[in-house]
Amino acid sequence: MLGEAVIVGFVSSAVGVGLGVAAAIGLRALLGGFGASLPSGSLTFEPRTAIVGLAVGTLVTVVSAIGPARNAVRIPPVAALTDRATDGAGATPSRRRIISGTALAILGAALLGLGLSKPVVALVGVGAVCIFVGVAMLAPVIARPLSGLLGRPLAALLGTPGWLGRENSMRSPSRTAQTASALMVGLALVSAMAVFGASYSESATSSVDQAISADLLISVNGSGQLSDSVPAAVAAVPGVTATNTVYRDQFEFKSTLTTLTGVTAQNLADTVTLRMTSGSTAALAQGELLVDSTTAAKDHLAVGDTVPIRFAYTGPATIRIGGIYQSNALIQSYLVSAPYFLAHFRQESPAAVLVRTNGRPGVDAAVTRALAPYADVQVQTRAQFQQSEIAQVNQLLGLVYALLALAVLIALIGIVNTLMLSVLERTREIGLLRAVGMRRPQVRTMIRSESVILATFGAVIGIVIGTLMGLALVSSLRQQGITETSVPWVRLVEFLILAAILGLVAASWPARRAARLDVLAAIAAE
Predict the structure, then answer these.
(1) Contact criterion met (CB below 8 Å) for 225 and 340
(2) What pLDDT was estimated at residue 261?
(3) Quick check: helix, strand or coil at residue 120?
(4) How confident is the model over 240-285, as pLDDT tens digits?
C-alpha cells in the first residue's frame, strides 16, 4: 500500500505541478483584477519548483497512507476471505483518538488564551492550528448525532431517498468526519477572514471619525507627495476656515526605524481629533514629541522622559516626551510640530492637507477647482475617505476569498471521491434497492442527500470554529488599531447555504453513476 501511495503521489504531484503553471497565469490576472500590480516580465519556472512540488506531494501522500496501510494489515484473514461488508468500520472513534483530540484542543485553547493576554499573534496562530487538529480528531464523536440532525429536514422533505441518505451519512461517523474535515478547514479560514474583515471595516470607519475633525482631506492619488504650494492655494479659497499641513517621513526612534508625522500646531484642534491622556498639545510648539498610548505602554514612556532619535539629514539627537495621546489612525505613533519636522528633513513636501470649511454649499467644489492645475491630487470628504479605506479592505478580502476558494474546491473533490467509493462499495445494496422498486431519480436523490449532509456537517463545524478564530484574531490585534468587533451573521449564513449547494453539485457524478448501475449486475456483485 505504501508503494501504491508513492506512485499515486508522484503522478498526482506531476499533474499538480503542470496545473500550477496554469494557475500562476490565472493568479496574475486575478491580482490585476483586484488592483495589485506585479512587475512586468515573462513567467518564470525554476527547476526547484518542480523538484519541491514532486517531493512534497509524494511525501504527503505516503504519510497520509501510513494509517490506512496499518489498518489494512490488521484485517483478520477470515474477514477478508468472507468479504464481509466493512462500511461500518471505524463507526466509533477509539479512546486514544478521543484523548489525543481533547488534549490538542485544550492545548490550543491554552495557547490561544495566552496569545490573547500578551497579546502575541504567533501564539494565537499556533493555538488555532492545535484547535483545528483537535476538533478534526473529535469530529467523529459528534458526526452521527449532528448528521442525523442535519439530515432530518431532508428525510421529511424527500421521503425515503432523503431518509436513506441520512442513514448513509450516519453509518460511518469516521468516514463522515474525515470527508468533511477539508471543507471544515476551508470554511473555517473563510469565516475567520469574514469576521476579521467586518471588524476591520468597522474599525476603519470608527478610527476615521475619532481621528479627523476636518471636512476635507487632500492627498496624492497614488504614491508621492503634494506640491509645496497646495496648502496656500487651499487656504485662499473662500469658505475655508482652517488648514493643517501634514508631513510624514522615516526616522529612528530608540534605534528602530519608524514613521514620524509633523503637523501645523496652530490649527490642530480644528482639523485633528487628538485625545490626550497626559501632557498637552502645547508641547508641540516647544519642539517636544507626542506619542500614542500604545507605544508609550510598550516602551514604558512617560511625559518628561528624554529619548534618543536619529535623522538621516541632521543625525542623532534627543527629544523630550511632551504628551501621550490615544491611538489615532491619521497621526499614527509619533507626532511633532511642522517647523521641528522641516528642520530635520531636507526638501520635504506635504503628505496631506486637512481642511475645515464653514459648511456652506459649494465650498467643496471650489476647493476642487482651485486644485485642478495640480496633477494626481484628490479631494475627499471625510465620508469618502472612510469609504476608500473600507474599499481597500474589501479588495484585500476579495483576493483572500479567491485564494481560499481553492481550498474549498479541494474539499469538494474529496467529497466526490468519498461518494464514488461509497457507490462502489454499496453496488449490491443499490442493486437490491432498485430491485425492490427504487427508481433512478430516487437513487440520485439518495446520493445527493448524503452529499449535502456531508458538506453541511463540515460547514457547520468550520463556520463555528472560524468565527471563534476570527474573534480571537480581532482581539489579539486591538493594539494595532482594530478596536471594533463585528460578526457578519448574514455572510456566515450565506457560506452555509453555499456549502450545501456545492455539496449538491459535488454529488452529480456519483449520483449519476449510481443511478446507471445495471440492476442484475449490481445484485450479482461481490
Answers:
(1) no
(2) 92
(3) coil
(4) 888 888 998 999 998 889 999 999 888 788 888 888 889 888 888 8
Task: Report the C-alpha gap between 161 and 447 in whole angstroms.
Answer: 8
The contacts found for 292-301 with CB under 8 angstroms, 24 or more apart, are 292/324, 292/325, 292/326, 292/327, 292/328, 292/331, 292/332, 292/333, 292/334, 293/324, 293/325, 293/326, 293/327, 294/327, 294/333, 294/479, 295/333, 295/334, 296/321, 296/324, 298/479, 299/254
pLDDT digits (tens, 9 = 90+) for 200-209: 878 777 767 7
Residue 374, SS3 per DSSP: coil
Residues in the chain: 526
CA 37 to chain centre: 21
Look at the alpha carbons of 59, 60, 64, 65 in this order and tell me if their dihedral is positive or negative.
negative
Query: Rounded CA gap, 218 and 208, in Å?
Result: 15
462 CB neighbour count, 10 Å cutoff: 30
CB 434 within 8 A of CB 517: yes
Q: What is the pTM of this model?
A: 0.73
Rounded CA gap, 203 and 484, in Å? Answer: 5
Q: What cell was used for 18?
A: 503542470
